[in-house]
Amino acid sequence: MLAAAGWKPRLTEPAHRSRRTLIKAGLTGASAVAAGLVVPSTAFAVVSLVRRVRTHGVQSVAGRDPAASKPAAPRPARRKLFADYLTDARAAWTPGVEITPAWVREATGCSRGLSSRLAAALAT
Prior knowledge:
The protein is mainly α.
């Protein structure tokens, strides 16, 4: 009765988009046609699974994370703090040296904005 009245089920995503997505994932030919008949949300899940298998291997899809067996990468060094720059500047300072922002930049390698604050802290 609904078909006779011209009613068609409404999809959440146009079919051509899901086919493009499948083609981008590498599904071509009969597999793309068969997957194009699937509801778009199901097609998205299949595509993401295919991509994950291709990039990470079967172990990651099965629940075993291949990255877990690798040793953790070393953490990057923390940022240098104001106190660290101040300690470096105090160690480089000798009597008779005028403390200026330019000297602080040269001695510690800090930025222009920080050098004026360090020079003021050293002068006190």
